[in-house]
Design brief:
Elements: H1 7-16, H2 23-34, H3 44-54, H4 62-73, H5 77-91, H6 95-104, H7 111-126, H8 136-156, H9 163-166, H10 172-183, H11 185-191, H12 198-215, H13 226-239, H14 247-257, H15 270-289, H16 294-297, H17 308-325, H18 329-352, H19 363-374
Helix pairs in contact: 1-3, 1-8, 4-12, 4-18, 5-10, 5-15, 7-8, 7-14, 7-18, 8-12, 8-19, 10-12, 10-13
């Protein structure tokens, strides 16, 4: 799988580049938003790509997806953010994917917007109705799949790309590694004090499996249950996880990106707020994924902010107990939470200048400019 890409998406990108500027993206966006039948005279590669996208696997259970989405709707946005940053940092412990990240600059110079885009993608997919065919999350998954193809094309165009040591760029093994931290959302929720049932936990994995499918992960690397999650985690640790010289640089960029994810105070409180935000997420990364690789990842030692983690757990658990005990509280939190998350996500996008259209057609030019400047 380290040598397997996504032929449907790669062929589509190659075909789009043969069209007049902007025409390929116009056809793609119309097909994603309105269906392939709405596109006049679509290119064959787009037809093949959309046929695969529109083909819903037999195993997809809409009731499980809805169960997971209702669960996430009642989870506060701060908990979503606190779970996401350590997941990003875990992926930076992989040497081969880092070669792509450094060359595109998306998770170095552009860390803030890229992390905000990923959180927006997760929020859209976990929003009620988000993974319906024309839901916001589903369409975001399709656009992310195209982004991966653009990045692969850019890396394949580099003379310096070392296929023997770095494998095929953005390959299937790496894509499954990228999705892996999200499969740990259920235990992460428990760790933060958010109570949910075994049925809801299984529903989370089902939702993530469908998200993986739409993003383009091969069936062999999609996770269907906890046993497969454990096995793929072991395989990733054995084959991919090895921090390199870029890991601390990417880790630092991710931690500094957290400033834009919160509405931090200004004035005399700005510096303490930034310190607290930085070290809270650094401590989370150390506790959840950095115990073995803390120094290699460039993570600092645990700070006094680690003492707030038990308090966060207790506060969330108290809220969960009240939700379960009070009739109608679950329904109220689900409805209110879904609306509140979208409002907060809109604010994060504004602060981070995230690109939710995932317009990455210029990735090759961007990489070449970066290389020419560094050379």
């Amino acid at each position: 799988m380290a040598q397997v890409a996504d032929p449907l998406a790669d062929n589509l990108v190659a075909a789009m580049r043969t069209l007049p500027r902007g025409e390929g993206r116009r056809q793609f966006e119309q097909a994603v938003d309105d269906g392939i039948e709405a596109v006049a005279d679509p290119i064959p590669e787009l037809v093949a790509f959309m046929e695969a996208i529109d083909n819903v696997p037999y195993w997809v259970d809409s009731r499980k997806i809805e169960t997971a989405q209702r669960l996430f709707a009642r989870i506060p946005m701060r908990s979503i953010t606190m779970m996401t940053i350590p997941g990003f940092i875990l992926t930076y412990a992989a040497t081969r994917p880092n070669q792509v990240l450094i060359r595109t600059g998306d998770l170095d110079e552009g860390a803030t917007s890229r992390i905000a885009e990923t959180i927006a993608w997760l929020v859209a997919c976990t929003h009620p109705g988000g993974m319906d065919r024309f839901g916001e999350g589903f369409r975001s998954c399709v656009r992310v799949r195209l982004v991966h193809a653009y990045v692969r094309s850019a890396m394949n165009g580099l003379d310096e790309w070392d296929y023997d040591n770095w494998d095929y760029p953005v390959n299937q093994a790496q894509q499954s590694l990228t999705m892996l931290p999200f499969t740990l959302l259920s235990p992460s929720l428990f760790a933060l004090g958010h109570v949910h049932s075994p049925r809801e936990s299984a529903a989370i994995l089902h939702l993530l499996r469908y998200m993986s499918h739409v993003v383009g992960v091969r069936p062999e690397l999609q996770i269907a249950n906890r046993s497969e999650m454990v096995r793929l985690t072991w395989l990733a640790l054995w084959s991919e996880i090895k921090p390199d010289q870029y890991s601390p640089r990417l880790t630092e960029a991710a931690l500094e990106a957290t400033y834009a994810l919160y509405n931090l105070p200004s004035g005399s409180f700005a510096a303490p707020a930034r310190w607290a935000t930085y070290h809270l997420h650094a401590d989370l990364a150390v506790v959840t994924s950095g115990l073995l690789y803390r120094k290699a990842m460039g993570l600092p030692r645990l700070s006094p902010m680690a003492l707030t983690l038990p308090a966060i757990f207790v506060a969330n658990l108290a809220n969960e107990v009240a939700r379960i005990a009070i009739p109608g509280a679950t329904q109220f939190q689900t409805a209110r939470g879904a609306h509140r998350r979208k409002v907060i996500m809109h604010q994060i996008v504004d602060r981070s200048k995230a690109d939710l259209a995932y317009s990455k057609e210029d990735t090759s030019q961007k990489v070449n400019r970066k290389l020419s400047l560094s050379g």
